Amino acid sequence: MARPDTGAAADRDGIGTDPPRSRSQVWAALARFAAFSVVALLAVLAGTVVIAERATRGEILRHAERTAGDIAETIITPRADQALRDGDPEALAALDSVMAARMADHSLIRVKVWSPDGKVIWSDDERLIGQQFELEPQDAELLTTLGSTAEFTTLDRAENVYEESVGEVAEVYLGFKDQTGKPLLLETYVPVAQVEAESRAQVRTLLPLTLGGPALMLVILLPLALSMARRVDDAGAERASLLRHAVAASALERRRIAGDLHDGVVQDLAGIGYALPAIRQSLPDGPEADDARQKLDRVNEIVKGDVAALRSVITDIYPPDLHEGGLVPASQLLFSEVRYAGIEVDVHIDPEVSDQSLPIDAAVLGYRVLRETLRNVVSHSGAARVGVSLRTDNGDLVIVVEDDGVGFDPALGAPEGHFGLRLLGDTINDVGGSLAVDTPPDGGARVVARFPIRWGETS
What we know:
Elements: H1 6-13, H2 24-79, H3 82-86, H4 89-102, E1 110-114, E2 120-123, H5 137-140, H6 142-145, E3 148-153, E4 169-177, E5 183-191, H7 193-282, H8 290-317, H9 320-324, H10 327-340, E6 344-349, H11 351-355, H12 360-381, E7 385-393, E8 396-403, H13 419-430, E9 434-438, E10 445-452
Parallel strand pairs: 6-7
Antiparallel strand pairs: 1-2, 1-5, 3-4, 4-5, 7-8, 8-10, 9-10
C-alpha cells in the first residue's frame, strides 16, 4: 500500500503552517498600560486632593490656636483687670476698640472672654455680655491647666444663638490669667470656608505641576511600552511557531514511522502469515510431518500476534480516526482497550468538546494524555473502575482521569516508572498548560491535564 505524502497531509491537518499574525495582543497590552496609567494618575490626583484637604484643615486648627494665643497675650491679658470683670463700661469700651481693629479683616468672627462660673464678661457681640452658660467639662478644665483646645464645630450650643448662620468654624478655647492672677477663658471662632476656598485654589494652581510631570513621563513611555509589547508579542509568536514546527516535525515523523511499519514490516509479516497455511497444506500426510505442522502452527500464531501488536503500535503512533473524526471518536478505541482489560470505564464528555472541532494540535495532545493515563491505569493501578472527563474551561481543554486503584503517596510525587507521564507533563508545560497527579481522599489516583485549546496560535 502506497504511503500518502506526509507533507501535504500535514498541511491539510493544519500542522506545520503558521496562522495569520495579529497585533490585537499588542494593542490590548498597550490599552491596559494606558488604562493603568490613567488610573494611577487619578489615584495621585485623588490622593493629592485628600492630603491637601487634611493638611489644610489641620493647619486651620493650628492657626486658630496660634491666633487665640496671640490675642490672649497681647490684647486681652493687658486689659483684663477687675474693672473688666465687673463690667466697667470704660474697660469694656477700651477692649472693644482694640478688638474691633483686630477683627476688621474678618479672620475672626467671634471672641468671648469667660469667667470660671460660665459668665461672658466680654464679647465683640455686646448682647452676650453678662449672660451665663454652663461650660463643658473639658473647657472648664482649661481654667486650671491654662491649656487650649481646637476643633471644628457648626455652632449649635445655647451660647451660639447669634451665630447659627455662620456655618462651620474652628473653635478655640484657651485658659489664661488676668492682671490679678485669676483664671479666665478665651473663646475665638475662625471661619473655615474662606480658608478652605483659598487652599483649594492653591491646590488647583499646583495640580498641573503635580500631574504634568507624571503625565509627560507617561507620554514619553508610551512608544517604549509599544515597542516592548511588540517585542514580547514577537517573542511569543516565535516561540509558538517553533513549538508548532516541533510538533509538526514530531507528527510527520510519527506518520513516517507508522507508514514504514505498515508498508514494510507489517506487510511482510502479513505475507508470511498468508504463506504459512499454504506451506502447512503442502506437507505430506503422516505422523512424520506432525512435528513440522505443530511448529508451523506455532509460528503462524506468533506472526499473527506480532502483526496485531504492530498494528496497535501504528494506531498509537498515528491513530487515523484522530485526523479524520477528531479526539472523541479516536478515544473510543482507548476506552475499548480498558474495558477489554476488565476495567469499567465511566466517560463524561461535555457537549462543547463533542460539538466543536478541536485544532489538531489540541486533539493530538489530548489523545496522548488519554492514551498514557489509561495505559497506566491498566498496567499499574489494579483498579476496577476509571472515570474519564473531558470539558472546556476558559479556552482550555481539561481532561480528568480518576481510578479507584491502589494509588500512591502524594508526598513522593508521581509513581516510580511513570516516565511517560513525566514526559507528557513537560510537553503540556511547554504549551502553557499543567499536569497534576494526586490521590483523592477516597483513594486511587487522579490525573488532571489542562492546556490551551489553541496553544499553537497567536491572536
